[in-house]
Design brief:
- Helix 10 links the parallel strand 3 and strand 4.
- With 510 residues, the protein is α/β, with parallel strands linked by helices.
- 41% of the residues lie in helices and 9% in strands.
- The protein is globular, with a radius of gyration of 28 Å.
- It starts with a helix and ends in a 21-residue tail after the last helix.
- The strands form two sheets. A five-stranded parallel sheet has the order 1-2-3-4-5.
- The protein is built from 19 helices and ten strands.
- Among the domains are: 207 residues, no CATH class; 148 residues, Rossmann fold (3-Layer(aba) Sandwich).
- Keywords: Glycosyltransferase, Golgi apparatus, Membrane, Signal-anchor, Transferase, Transmembrane, Transmembrane helix.
- It is a single-pass type II membrane protein.
- It is found in: Golgi apparatus membrane.
- One of its GO terms (molecular function) is glycosyltransferase activity.
Length: 510
């Protein structure tokens, strides 16, 4: 309101100024006006007047544009640390050695989207589909940030500070066959570098955020033992002050927040989104439900074996793609998306951890996700998925499956057609929320996963800033073990989901 009043006053002042200037001009050249005899002379004087006024109006336009930009970006400015290249760009140059089994170089072309898939089987749309790796998010996010409309080189006006460290690519080099000190080396160096920067002292890192494009457990080694998994990036005291963005967060820790896995779809325009949504609305679905994945016989509590058995015995009402066979169609996006587009429900049982990239692939296909624990989505993607999970998904408790107290086919068959239709529409509406736009484009109508993430980070940092100014610390008001409850429900009372979050293996889930 104050800004609009100020703008109105400024416009009136300029109007009065211009009127007085013209009046002065007429008085000064009164005699000449009386003596004018040719159109050329009049034209020359008008041209002279325009030249005199041009710098004033150009300056005014520039000031107006600057003010509009400042108003649009107030509270949204982000400062990006200029890290030494060994923390990001140099890792891309070492792409052949980042993964023990896969040459990652093919996945870093096109700003981290991977190679274009084309559309030979007519499963995708004509453009916007790429062979994107599930662990490429750090690169994609960084390239999107380079196009963010409210970047600033002045850290003092920044609402938040982005740290473009490729933490997941870094640790992936050392997860197998390296000792703990090697795995920790770059993380410790980064924290030291940040601590020595003046930006750190403003809020002791509480306004800093970074993306770690793997699951949180790859960065939460709680014991300095070579035999334990991952590095200790997220358990360092300085890291606990920062907002850490991962593709899977810890329900029992308060400093990491989950954002969607990257999918294969990276639309260029809003219209690309609308066309795909309309296509998924019209899609014919022959299977009631489907599952793409492999069993986990070495994980004691895994329900995947039972899920696959029920799928096989469903009399062709379930589509099954086993990812453990030699052909391994699961590595080929066209097969995954074809099956999901052909199914009403897509089963998402936990695998090595709670979450799955498959969840977001199924949403792209308009396939209603079926979860077996709220840890797979409901307490994870709080900035991107509705809090009312019943609107877009189904929850079947994993204990009921493990103890064979439920038939998945029967449970899903009992859902009415009208409710299925409403749920599918909610899923299709979520497609922009879980999609990362092509970094080279800019949408006008929709917000993508990047936009929603930045909005969530800025709101969190502003809340922390206000707490610091008031001498408060909300994290002291609850046991960190109850973080999932606090961030999902805003309170830590007894909850019907408590049994899902009994941390039984602290060496795995630190």
């Amino acid at each position: 309101m104050d800004g609009s009043i100020t703008a109105m006053l400024r416009n009136k002042i300029w109007f009065v100024f211009c009127a007085l200037f013209v009046f002065w001009f007429l008085l000064l050249y009164e005699k000449k006006f009386n003596d004018w005899s040719t159109e050329d002379e009049v034209s020359e004087d008008v041209d002279d007047l325009e030249k005199e006024l041009e710098p004033i109006f150009l300056k005014d336009d520039a000031n107006r544009e600057k003010e509009e930009q400042q108003n649009k970006c107030r509270g949204r400015y982000i400062y990006v640390h200029d890290l030494p290249s060994r923390f990001n760009d140099d890792l891309l140059k070492q792409c052949k050695s980042l993964n023990k089994w896969t040459d990652m170089c093919q996945y870093f072309v096109n700003n981290g989207l991977g190679s274009e898939l084309g559309n030979p089987a007519k499963i995708f749309s004509r453009t916007g589909w790429f062979n994107t790796h599930q662990f490429s998010l750090e690169v994609i996010f960084h390239n999107r940030m380079k196009q963010y409309e409210c970047l600033t080189n002045d850290s003092s006006e920044a609402a938040a500070v982005y740290v473009p460290y490729y933490a997941g690519l870094d640790v992936s080099r050392h997860l197998w066959g390296s000792n703990a000190s090697v795995r920790d080396s770059d993380s410790l160096s980064l924290i030291k570098w940040l601590r020595e920067r003046p930006e750190w002292d403003v809020m002791w890192g509480r306004d800093h955020f970074m993306v770690a494009g793997r699951i949180t457990w790859d960065f939460r080694r709680g014991i300095d033992d070579d035999n334990h998994w991952g590095n200790k990036l997220m358990v360092l005291p300085e890291s606990k002050n920062m907002t850490m963005l991962t593709i899977e967060s810890s329900p029992w820790n308060s400093n990491d927040f989950a954002i969607p896995y990257p999918t294969y779809f990276h639309p260029w325009t809003d219209n690309d989104i609308v066309q795909w949504q309309n296509r998924m609305r019209k899609q014919k679905r022959k299977s009631l439900f489907c599952f793409a994945g492999a069993p986990r016989p070495n994980i004691e509590d895994s329900i995947r074996g039972e899920v696959m058995n029920q799928c096989k015995s469903s009399n062709r009402r379930c589509g099954l793609m086993e990812c453990s066979d030699q052909r391994n169609k699961c590595q080929k996006p066209v097969h995954i998306m074809k099956m999901f587009q052909n199914s009403v429900f897509c089963l998402q049982p936990p695998g090595d951890s709670f979450t799955r990239r498959s969840t977001f692939d199924s949403i792209l296909a308009g396939c209603i996700p079926v979860f077996f624990t709220p840890a797979s989505a409901y307490v994870q993607y709080l900035w991107h998925l509705p809090r009312d999970f019943n609107k877009y998904s189904v929850l079947i408790p994993e204990d009921d499956v493990k103890n064979r107290r439920v038939s998945i086919e029967k449970k899903l068959s009992q859902i009415s057609k009208s409710r299925v239709s409403a749920m599918r529409e909610e899923v299709i509406k979520l497609i922009p929320n879980v999609t990362y736009a092509d970094p080279r484009s800019r949408w006008q109508k929709f917000e993508d996963a990047f936009d929603l993430t930045v909005k969530g980070v800025l709101e969190r940092v502003e809340s922390l800033r206000q707490e610091m100014e008031e001498g408060k610390n909300s994290s002291l008001s609850y046991d960190e073990e109850d973080s999932w409850k606090y961030f999902t429900f805003g309170k830590v009372d007894k909850n019907e989901w408590d049994n899902f979050f009994l941390r039984t293996d602290r060496s795995k889930y630190y």
